[in-house]
Amino acid sequence: MAEKPRIGVFVCHCGLNIAGVVDVKRVAEEAKKLDGVVFSTTYVFMCSEPGQKVVENAIKEHKLNGVVIANCSPSLHEKTFRNAAARAGLNPYRVEIANIREQVSWPHEHEPEIATRKAIAVVRATVERVKNNMTYIPYEVPVTKAVLIIGGGIAGIQAALDVADAGYEVYLVEKSPTIGGKMLFLSETFPTLDCPQCIETPKMTDVSQHPNIHLMTYSEVESVEGYLGNFNVKIKRKASYVDFDKCTGCTDCLRVCPVKAPNEFDRGLTKRGAIYMANEQAVPLVAVVDEKYCIEVNFQKRVKAGKVKPREKPVCSKCVEVCEADAINLLESNEKIVEVKVGAIIVATGFELMDMKKLPEYGGGEVPDVIDALAFERLLAPSGPTAGVPKRPSDGKIPKSVVFVSCAGSRDPEHGVAYCSRVCCMYLAKQAMLYKHAVPDGRAYNFYIDIRSNGKGYEEFVQRVREEGDLIYLRGKVSKIFRKGDKVVVWGADTLTGQKVEIETDLVVLATAMVPPPEIKKLAAKLRIPTDEYGWLSEAHLKLRPLETVTAGIFIAGAAQFPKDITDTVSQASGAAAKVLTMFSQPKLKREPIVAEVDTEICAGCGLCKEQCAYDAIRIDEKKNISVVNEALCEGCGACAAVCPSGAMRLRNLTKKQVIEMIEVLTENY
Question: Are 179 and 215 in contact (CB under 8 A)?
C-alpha cells in the first residue's frame, strides 16, 4: 500500500455469537486509536445487506484504501466483503478478515474479558497486515468445454446426462465392464419399493446412446495434468481381449468357457467364466476376458516371459471358435492409453462394503451362511441367482429364520469406522419385509443400536415394516456369531429388557460398513485432492462448498464423499453438474491472484518448495536455477513460502514482512 493508509474497521456482533462474549463496542473504540485507522464501527449482522451497505458507504465517504472486517471465519464471508468493497470502488484484495468468532468468542465463551482483549489484539494484527496489502486483479484462463466423470454408478450417470443434455462433451470412465454401479445389485429401493433396474437401466441406455457422451467402460484414469479449465488426462483402456465394436452380446462365448470363477455381480454366490458379461443388463452389452482366470491368456503371458515354449494349437480357444463376429483375440492384449482434454472433472467413485473377513467375531468369511447385505440383495432380486427366493449358500435350502445385524463394523472405532453408514437401518428393514414376502412362514430378527430413518418417507416405511408382524427388533449389539451343525448361532443382548439373547438361525445378514474403494487414495493423489481420515474424498468446505474440492475445477458427487442413499446421491450429482455448467457458461475463467510468487534475485533453486507443493504448481528452471510458479495451478496454500529457507518464495498479501509485523503486534503487552 504505497499511499497513506486510510483503514476502516467494522466489528460484527454476529447476533450473540460474538457480542454475547466480546465487548464489540470496546473493540471498535480501541481500533479507532490505531495508526492508519480513520473509521471504526459495529453492526449487529455485518454480512446482511444493510451491514454491507455500512461498509460500502464508509469506503466512499471516508475514502478508505483498506478494510478490516472483524467477524467470522474468512471461509464464510471473505468473498462477501470483497464483493462489497468492489461495488464501492475499492480493490477487493485490500480487504482482510479478523476472525473473532471461531478464534475468539467461541473458545472463550466464559471469559469475556480475555475474549475482548484477544479480539482487540486480532484486529490490531489484521490492521497491520492490511497496511501492506497490494492491489491485484484476477487473471483469466481459457476453458476446454468438456468434462471427465470418473465412476459410472448412478451419480456418474446423472451428472453425465445433465452436462451432456446442456450440449457439452462428456467422457464417462468406469473401471468395470458396465455402468450402473451398486444400484444394479439391488432388489428393490426404499421407501417406495421401486425396481432399481426399471429406474436406472433407461438412464444407462440414454448414456450409451447420447451423442455428447463418450462411454469408456473397463477403463481407469492413468494420470491427470493441468489445471482449472485445462486438464490433460490419460485413460487406460484395460485389456478385454474383445473388440467392443464387433461384439454383438450374443453370449455364445460365455456358454463354452470351461473356467468357473467367482461372479462379483452375485457377490460370489454364483460362478462365471473367464470370459463374461457383468450382467444381462450390462451397458455396453459386450463380453470381456478376465486375465486373471483365462487359461489361454495366462499361457501366452508365460510364453512371452520365456517360462514355457509356444504351442502350435491354443491351450484353450473355445470362445474364439464360437464367436461368429470374430471379436475375440486371446493372443494379443488390446490395452491402450487414450488422452483427452477437459475443463472440469467430477469424481463419482462410489463405495464398497467392508470385507467380512475383518469381522471374525461374526464368522465373516468362515461361516458360509453369514453373508453381507449386498449378497442378500442378490438373493432377493428377481434377476438374482435364486430368482428372488432367498436360499442358504451352504445347502440351497430356504431359510426359515434370518437374523439381520446392524452396524457390523460401522460406528465401531475398533474396526476403524467411527461413522454411521447411514442407509443400513433402512435397507435392513426393506430386506426383512421382502424376506417375509418371499417366505411368509419365516421369522426375521433385527439387532440394532438405534434406528436412523431421516429421509422423506423413511420413518413411515420403518413403522410399516414393524407393524407387519413376525419381525422382531432387538435393541442391542451382537457379540458373537458361530456355526453349530447346520445352524448359525447368534449371541447378543436386548438392552431394553437387560437379558442375554441366543438365537439359532438359518441365515445371518450383516449390514457391513460402507467404506471407500481401496484404490481411491491413488486416484486422489493423481487428482491432487485430499481424503479424510477414513479415506473418503474431502470437500473444500462441508457447508459452503460441499461439491468442490480444494483443487479448482474438480468436483465430487455421491458416495465418493461419504455414505449416501440414492436420493442424496442423485441430488449431489446434479449439483456437481450444475457447478460444471456454471464454469462452461463463461468464455474464460477467473482465477484468484493471491498465489505464491518467487523473488528470482534470491532464489537458489533448492527445490524444497517444489517438494512441498501439493498441487504440482512449482517447477525448477534448470537453466536459471530458480523456482517457477504456475499461477493457474497454485491454490495459495502458502506451504512453499513456509518451507523456503531464503524467503524467496512468498505468498501475495501475506509476505514475511506482514507476518512479522502481525506477530510483533500480537506479542506486545496490551
Answer: yes
Would the pLDDT of 228 be above 60?
A: yes
pTM to 2 decimal places: 0.91
| Location of C-alpha cell 503486534 | 665
Instruction: Give yes or no for a contact between 12 and 42, defined as CB atoms under 8 angstroms apart.
Output: yes
Query: What Cα–Cα distance (Å) separates residue 205 from each residue in 161, 179, 201, 213?
Result: 11, 10, 6, 11
Tens-place pLDDT, residues 445-493: 999 999 999 999 999 999 999 988 678 999 999 999 999 999 999 999 9
Who's near 211: CB < 8 A, 6+ residues apart?
Answer: none
Taking Cα atoms as reference points, which of 297, 26, 346 lies closest to residue 160? 346
Give the list of residues 6+ apart from residue 185 with CB closer than 8 angstroms, or none: 265, 267, 374, 377, 378, 381
Do 319 and 253 meet the contact criterion of CB atoms below 8 Å apart? yes
The total of other beta-carbon atoms located within 10 Å of residue 304's CB is 11
Phi, psi of 15 (to 5 degrees): 60, -120
Binning the chain into helix, strand and coil, the percentages to the nearest 5 are 30, 25, 45
Rounding to the nearest 10 degrees, give the CA dihedral for residues 196, 202, 208, 209: -170
Domains of the chain plus CATH, in order, are 7-138 (3.40.50), 146-238+341-350+519-585 (3.50.50.60), 252-333 (no CATH), 352-515 (3.50.50.60), 595-651 (3.30.70.20)
* Calpha distance 363→58 (Å, rounded): 70
Distances (CA, A) of 308 to 153, 256, 317, 617: 41, 26, 18, 48
Question: Distance between alpha carbon 610 and the CA centroid of its chain, in Å?
Answer: 27
CB 394 within 8 A of CB 369: yes
- 308/289 Cα distance (integer angstroms): 22
Start-to-end Cα distance in the chain: 26
pLDDT in tens, 160-174: 999 999 999 999 999
pLDDT in tens, 378-418: 999 999 999 999 999 999 999 999 999 999 999 999 889 99
Q: How far apart are CA 419 and CA 561, in angstroms?
A: 13
